[in-house]
Amino acid sequence: MNPLFPLNEYVPDGEAHVFGDRVYIYGSRDSENGERFCTGDYTVYSADIKDLSEWKCHGTSYKKEQDPRSTGDKLVDFYAPDCVRGNDGKYYLYYFAAGLNTQAFGPLSVAVSDRPEGPFTYLSDIKHKDGTPVLNFLTNDPAVINDNGRIWLYYGWGLGRDFRNKILSPLYNFVLSKLGHRPYHEVKRTKPSILSCAVVELEDDMCTVKGEPRAVLDSKTTADKNSEFYHHAFYEAPSIRKFGDLYYLVYSSGENNELAYATSKYPDRDFEYRGVIISNSDLGYNGNKQRKAPAGTIHGSIECIKGKYYVFYHRCTNNTDFSRQMCAEPVEILPDGTINQAEISTQGAGLPLKAKGAFPAALCCNLYNAKTKNVQGPGKSDRQPNIAAKNGESFVTAVTDGTVIGYKYFDFQNVKSISVTVRNANGSLDIFSGDKKTGAITVHCGGEWQEFETVVLAENGIFPLFLIYRGKGKMDMKSLEFK
After folding, report:
1. Which of 236, 255, 282, 321 does the annotation list as catalytic?
2. Collapsing DSSP states into helix, strand and coil, what is residue 172?
3. For residue range 224-282, what is the model confidence (pLDDT) as tens digits?
């Protein structure tokens, strides 16, 4: 169920790959109530392809002090990685390191291991044949594929704004000339824009490029304003797969809450926008225009596991972009190559959850009220409901009048009552199984956790569960239990 890993584990930017009989997830590492992205070492999780409910943590796979840019107590931060099996049978971990010691959009790097779970050892920065680092476009979020022996590397950063106007154009030129110490003439000569997703083929050494990187997907600055793609143009987080005869380039769009995708019959050109795979706030799902959770950054991948397809993505917690958790949903690739947008859920890649026993409130997939928008940044505001954590304990917080707490989906079988554990409550929780109100719990308590129970009239079957708070103040909810 979602999130895939324990509630005190913050692994975003998931790249899922099947190697042998296991699926491995490579991601960056956030921290509880983090104040910046990607503060931890790399950790690899894996599961048997026959059972995606049991994930094994392989521990630290690559430490920040192993990167040559880390010096003394000044360690780099490891951003979103990707891994590929080389033609030599070894596993290559591609990543971008950023920190106080590094230049903005500096070189991408690669580490190597004999095993998919690591540990990895630093190998090299990505370089041209003359040994100089590859700095074309804006180096960020590497993605890699072994395409029948040819190794293709994708990366880039695009922003979510259109700079083609008299007001923003000078700002665009000035800011980008400062990013990564890019000279002004490089910004001007990079076509169609330095704000693009780029691709380049690698030599057999896995770190030297064969030619010059080229743009393969436009950002909003260069996209056709009259196209549907303009509203879902490339921002960051490319991820590449090949299914059948189509290459799928998944990316985070300028909307900054959705994974969109483009397809092509070629790895390095002619990608065509096809749609949105998932939004971590359910925006766009079945035409939905309301944020069903605070929207925030998203990065992920799709993978085929035992003939079934899944999208891996992350959700935002702690009212910040800096404490993200791994999730997954099943998807279907239709005969024409398209993917219908998936719904965010609690059950995730598994079956509906049995409505029996206790569940942490923080497993909710929907959490919103009329004011819910984007995550608030540093995580220090409780102006909207969010999944919070303190000292390793996760709970739902800032629940105000009209807030919806939703779980999808539960298998109800002879459920007689539901209890909730809450604090700072002054009102009631209306209980809905699907569209039907099946009960209500009166909740009145102070700052200590207290359990309240009510009889419910839930029918047997598979339904979403929604709890709607009616009352004063800002309630916290720790758990719910079916009896």
Report:
1. 236
2. helix
3. 999 999 999 999 999 999 999 999 999 999 999 999 999 999 999 999 999 999 999 99
Residue 236 a catalytic site member:
yes
Is 13 designated active site?
yes
Catalytic residue, from 13, 77, 258, 282: name it.
13
How are beta strands 121-125 and 272-279 bridged, if at all? Answer: unpaired
> What's this model's pTM, rounded to 2 decimal places?
0.96
- Show Cβ contacts of residue 316 under 8 Å, excluding neighbours closer than 6 positions: 280, 293, 294, 295, 296, 297, 323, 324, 375
Rounded distance, CA 110 to CA 68, Å?
Answer: 12
Question: pLDDT tens for residues 152-206?
Answer: 999 999 888 887 777 777 777 676 666 656 666 677 778 888 889 999 999 999 9
Tokens of 302: 């799709």
At 274-284, the pLDDT tens digits run 999 999 999 99
- What is the token pair recorded at 128? 């041209």
Which of 155, 144, 157, 139 has the alpha carbon at shortest distance from 103? 139
In whole angstroms, what is the distance from residue 245 CA to residue 345 CA?
30
Beta-carbon neighbour count of residue 58 at 10 Å? 15
